[in-house]
């Protein structure tokens, strides 16, 4: 009996090991080592597996033909680190139609902006401070996400938002009515930018002052082209630091048409506007009616010159002489051609 005991014990141990091995094989992740991050990223994403190696979600908001992204999640942290894990990668792109769209955010640019770290906010403004609804699982279009971010400024800049709501750029949705021009009207981010909003120190104010085309001119192209008088528009476009930007005369957030009596460019307020400041410096002194008559040239210089018969005569004569000389030159070239 004692001779058979080692055999029984050995058989029992062998049976135990085989049973444990079968249980381990039945558990996911135990049959073989998990692939490394580099191995997962080296494998192309497919409709059945995302770029991280996990199973693709059953429903995706990604456009057809691209690898789906799961949007039914909450960021693991409210700090920038959670977002910058992905958006700090310069290669973060998606294919939309015939173009590549980058979702890369430069942390250096973000930190240098007005929303970067400061004494008042050592960590800076958090990503979710502007992208308010990003972790929502509801159905959103790209336009919805962008509109939410471009309007997020109102959460902190309440005075500016109140002024904006009184101006011509505000969406005018009255009870029972919808503003037909709502989609054409600019939101905060359309004028101020996104991740690279400049700090309003001396350098930032100077950069903002030079940025009239980006802030206003892109939409108001006719007014931008006509802003060409010698002392204002022409000087501003040449980079003169004391020439007024659009908002120096028209106002910044509560922008109103000149026909509105509250507008700084309305005739009743023009003296105060011309006697105000640009870039921290006094513009004009001794503003009287004769001085204000020049205001008609600021956006109408080209039109007023065309309306002047003497100027029109001289310009037409110059054009005629130039055309005649050009025709003579063409004729001479044809003789020796």
Can you walk me through this structure?
The chain has 337 residues and is mainly alpha-helical. Among the domains are: 52-144, no CATH class; 221-299, no CATH class; 305-337. The chain contains 16 helices and four strands. The chain has a two-stranded antiparallel sheet. Strands 3-4 form a two-stranded antiparallel sheet. β1 (93-96) and β2 (99-102) form a beta hairpin. The longest helix has 27 residues, at 309-335. Residues 1-11 and 17-78 have low confidence and may be disordered.
Question: How much helical structure, as a percent, in the residues?
Answer: 40-55%
Give the topology string: H per helix, E per strand.
Answer: HHHEEHHHHHHHHHHEEHHH
Q: Describe the biggest sheet?
A: 2 strands, antiparallel
Beta strand %: under 5%
Architecture blueprint of SSEs:
Elements: H1 5-26, H2 37-42, H3 80-87, E1 93-96, E2 99-102, H4 107-112, H5 142-150, H6 158-164, H7 188-192, H8 202-209, H9 212-217, H10 221-226, H11 233-237, H12 246-250, H13 270-274, E3 277-278, E4 281-282, H14 289-292, H15 301-307, H16 309-335
Antiparallel strand pairs: 1-2, 3-4
Provide a short characterization of the protein structure:
Among the domains are: 52-144, no CATH class; 221-299, no CATH class; 305-337. Helices cover 40% and strands 4% of the residues. The chain has helices at 5-26, 37-42, 80-87, 107-112, 142-150, 158-164, 188-192, 202-209, 212-217, 221-226, 233-237, 246-250, 270-274, 289-292, 301-307, 309-335, and strands spanning 93-96, 99-102, 277-278, 281-282.
């Amino acid at each position: 009996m004692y001779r058979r005991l080692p055999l029984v014990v050995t058989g029992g141990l062998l049976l135990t090991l085989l049973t444990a091995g079968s249980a381990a094989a039945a558990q996911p992740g135990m049959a073989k080592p998990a692939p490394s991050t580099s191995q997962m990223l080296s494998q192309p994403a497919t409709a059945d597996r995302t770029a991280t190696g996990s199973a693709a979600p059953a429903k995706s908001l990604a456009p057809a033909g691209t690898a789906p992204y799961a949007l039914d999640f909450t960021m693991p942290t409210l700090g920038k680190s959670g977002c910058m894990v992905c958006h700090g990668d310069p290669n973060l792109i998606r294919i939309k139609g015939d173009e590549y769209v980058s979702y890369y955010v430069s942390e250096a640019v973000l930190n240098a902006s007005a929303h970067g770290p400061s004494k008042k906010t050592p960590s800076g403004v958090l990503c979710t401070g502007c992208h308010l609804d990003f972790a929502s699982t509801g159905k959103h279009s790209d336009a919805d996400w962008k509109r939410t971010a471009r309007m997020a400024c109102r959460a902190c800049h309440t005075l500016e938002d109140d002024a904006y709501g009184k101006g011509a750029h505000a969406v005018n949705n009255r009870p029972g009515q919808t503003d037909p021009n709502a989609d054409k009207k600019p939101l905060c981010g359309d004028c101020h930018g996104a991740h690279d909003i400049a700090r309003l120190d001396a350098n930032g104010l100077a950069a903002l002052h030079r940025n009239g085309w980006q802030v206003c001119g892109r939409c108001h192209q006719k007014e931008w082209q006509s802003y060409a008088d010698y002392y204002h528009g022409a000087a501003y476009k040449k980079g003169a630091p004391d020439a007024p930007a659009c908002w120096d005369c028209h106002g910044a957030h509560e922008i109103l048409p000149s026909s509105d009596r509250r507008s700084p460019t309305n005739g009743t307020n023009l003296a105060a506007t011309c006697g105000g400041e640009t870039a921290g410096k006094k513009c004009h002194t001794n503003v009287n009616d004769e001085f204000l008559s020049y205001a008609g040239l600021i956006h109408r210089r080209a039109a007023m010159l065309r309306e002047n018969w003497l100027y029109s005569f001289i310009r037409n004569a110059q054009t005629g002489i130039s055309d005649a000389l050009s025709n003579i030159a063409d004729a001479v070239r044809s003789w020796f051609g």
